[in-house]
Amino acid sequence: MNMKAKFFLVLFALQFLFFFKTEACTTFVMKDSNQILFGRNFDFNVGSGFVVNNPKGISKYALVGNEQNIMRWTSKLGSITFNQFGREFPYEGMNEKGLVVALMILTKTKYPEIDNRKVISPLQWIQYQLDVASTVDEVIASNSVLRISKELPVGIHFLVCDAKGKSATIEFIDGKMVCHTEKQLPIPLLTNNTYDESISYLKNFDIMGGQKKYSME
Question: Tens digits of per-residue pLDDT, 37-48?
Fold first, then answer.
């Protein structure tokens, strides 16, 4: 990799780590028989960004530092994304098939060790899914051929939803993908904790009555 690309990666990592000192974002999915609503807030130190129109038919490759087995692909689907660090590095977006992918910071993230799968950077993982996947199942299945590089210390997890209303949380814990979907995803919502931690904390509250069942202390 040339020096310009390495400089970009280092700058990207430093900026991302600095900006994500604020950890208060939330993503959620709400749906009924007529519509699906995917929402998020953006409590972030920097509010400015730009919307990118990503056309299909573009050849791409992963930018991952010194790793060799990089992912190369051609976008099959067009998408719209929100970016802050440059084109091909989105925070969230939706493609023409109605697939939505959004990130949240997760400091407990641990990406996989090097193996024989193709490698990609954390934010490019989002763009890759929007470029090639139509459903949540396809996103999850990509784990058999694709892994996120450990070279950039950017811990994030993802909430994904498709046009049929299927949702999933996707996290990387102790080097393995952890997914929650369907019955394992009773509430399609993600913050800056693991999904299991959030569900465990929720058990301290009486949701219907709005009263706390017992103290966490």
Answer: 999 987 767 667
